[in-house]
Amino acid sequence: MRNIDFKLRRAGALFAALAAIGGGALISGCGGGGDTTNGGGTISEEISTHANNAQKEAEAGVEAAERGIEETKEKAEEAVEETKEKLENSHSKSKKNLEEAKERAEKIAEEAKEKAEELLP
Length: 121
Known about the structure:
Layout: H1 2-29, H2 43-119
């Protein structure tokens, strides 16, 4: 579980870095040649803002994945418990059926013995 968390966090950080680089390339390609953008901030501020947004989105994605993993784990545990209960019920029903069959066989054997004794002189 921790290995998955580590991999997801590493992937999120990589995604954030790529988004920051891509955002910087996009911003540097736009504009009229000045060193500020239309928002009044510098390019480095814009890159920082985009990097922070990308980091937040990556963290939100990691959190959503963690919640999904936890929900899946809970559902799997419920399914295991349900299967155990069904197996136990099946086992007890089989045992009950076996006992009933054994009783019937003993009764038939007793009846056959009685009839055999009646037929013998």
